[in-house]
Design goal:
single chain, alpha+beta, two-stranded antiparallel sheet, 11 strands, binds iron/sulfur cluster
């Protein structure tokens, strides 16, 4: 247990005062003096200057430095230490590489495995609506279907082309600090728009990219087997990012897949896959590609080789099986109306980084 009273105070704000792992994370992320400073936030610059016997300009610079490292976030009462543990996790690991404490990913994963995963899964699945929504990779929609703007990667990128940044995925950065991790997916994928892009650029974690570059990153991410996701709302202005998620690291997918209720956190696309048994050669390439365990190879009457059979109750319609299928045995079919995408959601979209 930490003996630093301010580390303990911060851990209390994260609602884990007795977690030794969280104490170690905080001790890795900040000095004892910084912990004392953070424990006083939110507070006015003048109050902090008086409290720490500093001039106001020095306080402002200190706050900007801590904000750059993700240890202060905006609130109605000014910059404050992030009380939500998920925000703290995402903020630290989405920092510029030089600000990420070495080895902190392993501590986060240990905390996750110690039971935090269950808390995340519960929180994400009791909001009344899924926070994320699956969208199709480029060029996987049926040729006769015109995608809605809010489900089309090209339309979303085009609508936000004035300011796009891409940064490393905070979840995979942490996961890939662990030896023998199952996650080997690309990490430079997290595509942010507008204010979110500005925030990442301010912090130095993001790089400004053109719409063409964002599209190229999208193709690379989905070819590598990542699931494109957005906030589960239809207005274009609500779509502030495109995440490329995986079941090995994503703090939305991983815990909810483990808890068996991923569809309460990740809404499916409007599409479902269909396998043409005559074209399926039984190669099994699609089976490990599906993070949702929706594909099984089965013997079917009239065929000598096993065929891919999809459990549509488990499927999120991500089309990654279509993407990897050499013989083009998989096609996507439109199965849900436009109204299936909510205009707003009850849960806070900010729950997702
Ligand atoms: S990748 Fe295509 S051909 Fe191979 S098992 Fe899956 S559906 Fe069949
Ligand atoms: S079966 Fe295919 S479309 Fe459905 S979740 Fe798995 S990879 Fe995605």
């Amino acid at each position: 247990m930490s003996t630093n009273e301010f580390i303990l105070k911060l851990a209390e704000r994260n609602r884990k005062p007795d977690s030794e792992l969280l104490h170690r994370i905080l001790e890795a992320a900040m000095t004892p003096e910084e912990a004392q400073f953070l424990a006083e936030t939110p507070a006015s610059t003048a109050d902090l200057a008086a409290k720490f016997n500093m001039d106001e300009k020095a306080v402002e610079e200190k706050m900007l430095g801590l904000a750059r490292r993700g240890l202060l976030v905006r609130s109605r009462r000014g910059l404050r230490y992030p009380g939500a543990l998920g925000t703290l996790h995402d903020n630290i690991l989405a920092s510029a590489p030089e600000y990420i404490p070495p080895g902190i990913g392993k501590l986060w994963i240990a905390l996750y495995d110690s039971g935090w995963w269950e808390e995340i899964a519960n929180e994400l699945t009791t909001l009344g609506a899924a926070v994320l929504r699956t969208i199709l990779p480029l060029k996987t929609a049926p040729p006769d279907v015109q995608l809605l703007p809010c489900e089309s990667i090209d339309a979303i990128i085009e609508a936000h082309k004035d300011l796009i940044s891409v940064r490393n995925c905070c979840c995979r950065v942490g996961e890939q600090m662990v030896e023998n991790t199952a996650c080997h997916h690309p990490i430079f994928t997290c595509t942010q728009f507008g204010g979110r892009a500005e925030y990442d650029l301010f912090r130095g974690g993001g790089r400004k990219v053109s719409a063409d570059e964002a599209m190229a990153i999208s193709v690379k991410a989905t070819d590598a087997g990542l699931v494109p996701t957005v906030t589960n709302m239809s207005p274009m202005e609500a779509l502030e990012f495109i995440c490329y998620c995986c079941g090995d690291a994503c703090l939305v997918l991983k815990p909810t897949i483990r808890a068996g209720n991923v569809l309460q956190a990740l809404a499916p696309s409007r599409f479902l896959p269909k396998v043409d048994n005559d074209k399926c050669n039984g190669c099994q390439e699609c089976v490990p590609r599906c993070f949702f365990g929706a594909i099984e190879m089965k013997e079917l009457p009239g065929y000598d080789t096993k065929k891919a059979v999809i459990d549509l109750d488990k499927c999120v319609g991500c089309a990654l099986c279509l993407n990897i299928c050499g013989p083009e045995a998989v096609t996507m079919e439109l199965v849900r109306p436009p109204e299936s995408i909510p205009e707003t959601i009850a849960g806070p979209s900010a729950i997702v980084h």
